[in-house]
Design a protein that fits this description.
The two termini are 24 Å apart. Strands 1-2 form a two-stranded antiparallel sheet. It is mainly α and 357 residues long. It has one domain.
């Protein structure tokens, strides 16, 4: 029964990865019987927020299940999970760039280092960004957030009593949100977004305690999110002129932060309500996507190079065939990286450091 419940998380993860691909691939207007169904694929940012919530759940769940809570073990497992597939994608991206330019291309070392140290964000959409994403792959912004969420989670879980953890998270995320009004940059942006990731942690706590998901159980945290939403609403008002600076204001500062938190707030309550309805219709809508979950991370970080900006099959002279092949190759490449290669390399790393996994 528990495995069946966790399969729903896998299904959402697989769906979210494919949705982001469609978000970047499909045009904004797809007219069917006079209705623009393209609007259904305009919520790629929300799919990324769904990844954050799922990640919070998984990290909390595995943390509580693993008796070895040393930093070395935690760090190496998180490092392997993020970096092994990512390094394959960086290599593949550079080789494709060399192919398109017909020789050795500029590896953009400074940007590469910024991404390796997880300091990247979308420089064209947010202020005070330290490093752009590598070779224009915009989705890599979320990896810097994810990585520092991991580190912050360990720091808090290792140093703070479990009974006080939620209070600490409330304080630091609200403080970050307030500071964001005065100077938005990577540190307070990531700490503020930790409040979204923590939704998954709160859900995992309930799941591990085998308690019932209720609206009352999440009420207090809902007020924290509402307070942050109010701060971000004020931020939008104060910095409204930025909506005229960026080319895509709906996915840029200062609107995007409010949009992300609004969706997270809605998703939190939607999950509880759907659970009370015994997940009616879930398997019919999303069940099949669980088969993409094992390589969804690689799909997410590779699709920019293998599908969206791809030109290596344009000699086919048929866009339908060309993009069908791009998607097939993306699936094959992602499967090989995350299902075949990643476990083997991870095993070698863990064996070298004598860590069980």
């Amino acid at each position: 029964m528990k495995k069946h419940k966790l399969e729903k998380l896998e299904a959402i993860r697989g769906f979210s990865a494919l949705y982001v691909v469609l978000f970047h691939m499909l045009p904004q207007k797809i007219m069917v019987l006079g209705i623009n169904i393209g609007i259904l694929f305009r919520f790629g940012s929300e799919a990324v927020i769904m990844f954050f919530i799922l990640s919070g759940f998984v990290i909390k769940y595995t943390w509580e299940k693993n008796p070895n809570k040393t930093f070395k073990t935690y760090f190496l497992k998180r490092f392997a999970r993020i970096y092994i597939p990512l390094l394959f994608i960086f290599l593949m991206a550079y080789l494709l760039k060399c192919y398109s330019e017909g020789g050795f291309a500029d590896p953009e070392i400074t940007t590469l280092l910024g991404n390796l140290f997880m300091l990247q964000d979308v420089i064209s959409l947010k202020p005070n960004v330290i490093s752009p994403t590598y070779l224009g792959n915009g989705v890599l912004w979320s990896l810097s957030y994810e990585w520092w969420f991991y580190m912050l989670f360990f720091l808090l879980s290792d140093r703070i009593k479990s009974s006080k953890l939620n209070v600490w998270v409330n304080v630091i995320t609200i403080t970050a949100a307030i500071s964001y009004l005065f100077y938005p940059f990577i540190l307070n942006r990531i700490v503020m977004y930790f409040a979204i990731w923590w939704i998954g942690v709160r859900f995992a706590e309930t799941y591990l305690k085998e308690e019932t998901y209720t609206l009352a159980s999440i009420k207090n945290y809902a007020f924290i999110l509402l307070f942050i939403l109010a701060i971000l609403g004020l931020n939008l008002y104060i910095n409204f002129e930025y909506t005229k600076v960026y080319d895509y204001p709906l996915v840029a500062f200062p609107f995007i932060e409010l949009r992300h938190f609004t969706f997270a707030f809605i998703a939190m309550f939607a999950g509880i309500i759907w659970n009370k309805l015994n997940w009616f219709g879930f398997d019919q809508l999303f069940g099949v996507f669980k088969y993409l979950a094992p390589f969804s991370y690689a799909i997410y970080i590779s699709h920019h190079y293998l599908v969206i900006e791809a030109t290596y099959l344009n000699f086919l002279n048929n866009k339908i065939v060309e993009y069908t092949m791009y998607i097939v190759l993306m699936f094959v490449f992602s499967y090989l990286v995350e299902v075949v290669m990643y476990p083997k390399i991870k095993k070698q790393i863990m064996s070298f450091y004598a860590i069980k996994f």
